[in-house]
Design goal:
Largest sheet: 6 strands, antiparallel, barrel
Shape: elongated
CATH architecture of the domain at 194-287: Beta Barrel
Strand content: 25-35%
Radius of gyration: 43 Å
CATH superfamily of the domain at 194-287: Trypsin-like serine proteases
Order of helices and strands: HHHHEEEHEEEEEEEEEH
Strand order of the largest sheet: 1-2-3-6-5-4
Number of strands: 12
CATH topology of the domain at 194-287: Thrombin, subunit H
Length: 292
């Protein structure tokens, strides 16, 4: 063996490919981590941009001016048909109006009843207490009331003031959802004020008629001349037999009177434009209600 012989150096290619070095491992891992961080930051940036655009759009939508509000109200008024004041007034009291029927014994058939009178009443208390006219129930031995929902019940007279033509009835049963009428005051009424009368003229109803207050503090003498009613409201809303005992209502839906009589100089018992109502203050005293 020659003394100068020495192992040949490994080929250059082998020296570079024999295994990864620190020089070629570090850049690869560094770049991978940077890519992940870059994508994360980009996602955060996009999210913040979307939130900013959404908030800006929401804020712009919430900036309503008075002009926008006025335009919306005007559009609603033009696109919807609103009920008339008379319709709203009648609707507010209609659920408290009852049909009153009075019966006497049929003289020909002692075992059957014969209708002797028909009128209207208005519920004024939660317990179903009804206010009506005395002449509607006078002389009857049986009374039947029919509520707005069709419920029928017998009733009895628990109070009466014939001199004011007022009677108070108590039904034997009442509907579950019965709501009494709202009582107002006649003190603020003036000639020309709009009113509605709700009742059962000739048994037809409930019927609504509209008119105005014609005068205040009127008096009326009963057909038999025995009673003179005073302090009445004169009105021109149509009223006929059967309306007696029904409510006279103002445009706020409050009962301001109880329809009591009509005036007709002829023998006909029909309306010619002059009706009278007892004030609710006077009617309330018949039930023991406190002064208004």
């Amino acid at each position: 063996m020659r003394a100068d012989a020495s192992p040949k150096p490994a080929p250059l290619e082998q020296a570079h490919t024999s295994g990864p070095t620190l020089h070629n491992r570090f850049p690869i891992r560094f770049l991978k981590r940077w890519d992940v961080l870059a994508f994360f930051l980009l996602g955060v940036l996009v999210s913040l941009l979307c939130v900013g655009l959404w908030a800006s759009d929401l804020q712009s939508r919430q900036r309503l001016t008075q002009k926008d509000i006025d335009a919306a109200v005007l559009h609603a008024l033009e696109s919807q048909t609103l009920p008339s004041p008379s319709a709203k007034a009648a609707a507010s009291v209609q659920g408290a109006v009852v049909h009153v029927q009075a019966y006497v014994t049929d003289p020909k058939k002692k075992t059957s009843d014969m209708e002797s009178g028909v009128g209207t009443g208005v519920v004024i208390k939660d317990d179903g207490t009804i206010l009506t006219n005395f002449h509607v129930v006078a002389g009857a031995h049986k009374l039947k009331v029919t509520f707005f929902d069709g419920t029928e019940a017998e009733a009895v007279v628990i109070g009466a003031q014939p001199e004011k033509d007022l009677a108070v009835l108590k039904p034997q049963k009442i509907p579950d959802d019965l709501e009494p009428a709202i009582l107002g005051s006649s003190q603020q009424l003036l000639p020309g004020d709009a009113v509605v009368a709700v009742g059962f003229p000739f048994g037809i109803g409930p019927s609504v008629s509209a008119g105005v207050v014609s005068g205040m503090n009127r008096h009326f003498k009963s057909p038999d001349g025995q009673h003179v009613l005073q302090g009445l409201i004169q009105f021109d809303a149509a009223a006929n037999p059967g309306n007696s005992g029904g409510p006279l209502v103002n445009m706020s839906g409050e009962v301001v009177g109880i329809v009591t009589a009509i005036l007709n100089p002829t023998s006909a018992r029909t309306f010619i434009g002059i009706g009278f109502a007892t004030t609710i203050e006077s009617a309330g005293s018949a039930v023991g209600l406190p002064p208004f």
